[in-house]
Task: inverse folding
């Protein structure tokens, strides 16, 4: 159960995917949404903690929040 | 009662599986207890790795084509038709011409990858590729007349077929232009969507210094958003631009729409158990090769090994025994590092790749395997 107030426009479930699957899934979804939309990425891959942060900074998108649950992370990324 | 196994797709996965079943289920086929049908919309079997060599004038697309009926065991029923609908609850199929079976007891989906350049504005018009017969032929014409300027190889879509091929292409292009005395007039840039030059960190770590040594420029975190064919410029999601004179792109890939319409997975990739290759959303449905969303490379070797697993599991199920065979992620790739040298990697879910030192012997091994591939398709190698 997560406690974030951020509302996602779209969710990508990349749990179970090996690196770099989750980041590629996130990039693919960001392609499809509009500026200002928020994508929630679900990943249980530790590497996503650095991958997602690095890419969102590079691309100028905002990583609004990272939630940690019992078995996965939730990354909320707003498209610039 | 006859159990009917229907294999959809006549590429490596489907063909090897059909032949595997013919061999494995020989007594049941002879007794009429089992039928195996393979459905394909292309009467030819196409061996795609040939296309990498076409732009360099070393192979012809026809070298990668043979009639499927010459490769598939006579005990397998070959139907040339296109499956247009799957009802996994009723275990029924719809097809374009009504030639494919309308029912199945077991279904194996090996429908493979398709190219989707239209997903990137301008790409279809501006970009060349070696991921199709027509693309590789057009690229050959461009490369042969390309004597100076900026060659950009841009990996846009992942997953894509043969993840090593973009690296191979730039290594081969570098060598090819050097041998022709043109390299000083040709700049080569390689772009990749994430922060390294390949999805697999071990292969990326191996390749990057070799690219630097050979003056192959690299752009990472490079995700093309659009291409301007007139201005010969790519714009990225990261806000950058890159000019090119010749663009060789790995376009976005998709599976076929049928998969998503049947509720089996997104973008044409079937959600499967990564070890059993059973579809997660339906009973008695397997997927293999590119079609199976396992996270391993979309490569012929993967389809080949997965076909053996699916064949063994289907035979167990048909014989009323527990299916125990599992796929361990095994992948095998030769990686060309020039026009006459290659490396080799072998890895699985547990063991990462460790690329072999490039050698001429491995290059010849790759070419020899490409020739003997037809034995793999027949289920003999």
Result:
């Amino acid at each position: 159960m997560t406690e974030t107030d951020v509302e996602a426009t779209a969710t990508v479930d990349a749990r179970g995917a090996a690196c770099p699957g989750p980041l590629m899934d996130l990039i693919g979804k960001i392609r499809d949404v509009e500026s200002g939309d928020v994508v929630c990425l679900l990943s249980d891959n530790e590497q996503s903690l650095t991958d997602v942060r690095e890419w969102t900074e590079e691309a100028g998108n905002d990583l609004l929040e990272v939630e940690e649950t019992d078995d996965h992370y939730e990354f909320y990324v707003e498209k610039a | 009662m006859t159990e009917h196994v229907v294999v959809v797709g006549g590429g490596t996965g489907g063909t090897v599986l059909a032949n595997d079943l013919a061999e494995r289920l020989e007594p049941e086929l002879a007794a009429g207890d089992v039928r195996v049908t393979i459905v394909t919309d292309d009467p030819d079997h196409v061996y795609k790795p040939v296309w990498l060599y076409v732009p360099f004038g070393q192979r012809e697309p026809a070298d990668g084509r043979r009639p499927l009926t010459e490769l598939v065991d006579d005990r397998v029923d070959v139907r040339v038709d296109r499956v247009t609908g799957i009802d996994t609850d009723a275990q029924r199929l719809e097809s374009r011409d009504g030639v494919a079976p309308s029912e199945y007891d077991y279904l194996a989906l090996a429908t493979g990858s398709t190219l989707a350049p239209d997903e990137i504005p301008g790409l279809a018009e501006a970009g060349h590729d070696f991921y199709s017969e027509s693309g590789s032929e057009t690229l050959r014409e461009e490369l042969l007349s390309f004597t100076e300027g900026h060659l950009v190889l841009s990996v846009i879509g992942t997953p894509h077929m043969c993840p090593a091929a973009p690296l191979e292409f730039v290594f081969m292009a570098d060598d090819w232009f050097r041998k022709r005395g043109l390299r000083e007039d040709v700049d080569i840039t390689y772009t990749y969507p994430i922060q390294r030059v390949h999805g697999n960190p071990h292969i990326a770590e191996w390749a990057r210094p070799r690219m630097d040594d050979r003056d192959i420029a690299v752009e990472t975190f490079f995700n093309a958003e659009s291409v301007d064919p007139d201005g010969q410029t790519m714009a990225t999601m990261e806000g950058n631009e890159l000019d090119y004179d010749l663009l060789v792109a790995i376009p976005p890939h998709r599976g076929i729409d049928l998969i998503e319409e049947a509720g089996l997975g997104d973008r044409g990739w079937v959600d499967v158990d990564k070890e059993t290759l059973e579809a997660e959303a339906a009973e008695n449905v397997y997927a293999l090769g590119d079609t199976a969303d396992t996270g391993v490379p979309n490569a012929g070797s993967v389809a080949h090994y997965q076909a053996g697993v699916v064949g063994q599991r289907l035979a167990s199920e048909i014989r009323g025994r527990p299916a125990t065979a599992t796929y361990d992620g095994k992948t095998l790739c030769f990686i060309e590092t020039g026009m006459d040298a290659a490396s080799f990697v072998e890895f699985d879910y547990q063991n990462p790749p460790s690329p072999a030192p490039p050698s001429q012997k491995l290059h010849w091994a790759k070419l020899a395997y490409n020739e003997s591939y037809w034995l793999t398709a027949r289920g003999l190698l």
